[in-house]
Amino acid sequence: GTNQAQGKTYTIATDTTWAPFEFERDGELRGIDIDLINAIAENQGFSVDIKVLGFDGALAAVQAGQADAVMAGMSITDERKQIFDFSNPYFDSGIQMAIAENNETIKSYEDLAGQKVSAKNGTEGYDFAQKLAEQHGFTVTGFQDAADAYTDVTTGNSVAVFDDYPILAYGIATGNVKLKTVTPQTQASSYGMGVKKGANDELLTQFNEGLKNLIADGTYQAILDDYLGENA
Ligand code: GLN
After folding, report:
1. If you ran DSSP here, which 8-state letter would residue 201 be given?
2. What is the ipTM, given to two decimal places?
3. Which ligand 1 atom is at minimum distance from the Cα of 18?
């Protein structure tokens, strides 16, 4: 169709530090989400103004009409589809539990009984932890930033944190996160860019078109390799 989004500037709301999807690299905001939306914008001839609002802040800003889209490893869920429209999926993910490196007592969700765990507000990981909490009798503390949720575990206030596994795996592999995983990944879901329901169809169309082009020309894989590949 016609390039309705050509030349427009869209406000894109993202999370605070959540490597490898959004974080500072060489003094610049980078990451898979950031590089991908910038590459799609370039491919489709629109501009982006990226605002770092935190995850639940990003969702709220889009619902309030203060931003056009969330690009923040946002899981495409049926619940969110009530109030958001999503782009085509661009990354397959899921949730995992992590515990302190030196913790030898937590081996399964059953071992969380009577304990405290942490998660980030407004996330699938938080909802997942909350469901398990009812089943196994533990409490969940919510944090605005992943870093604070992780620190709650390293300082021993919580015994476990629930977050998306690519983020935990990256943090552990780079040595930035002093945690380990003992249970499998679960609750598979895919990430998409989210816009307020009915409000930004042309941006979604451009995103999907750009994503398709970047997959075809290898740019998409190059972005992933930059953060997740052998030499990342
Ligand atoms: N994928 C998770 C969700 O959509 C977490 C996203 C995030 O923390 N940025 O709830």
Report:
1. H
2. 0.98
3. 9
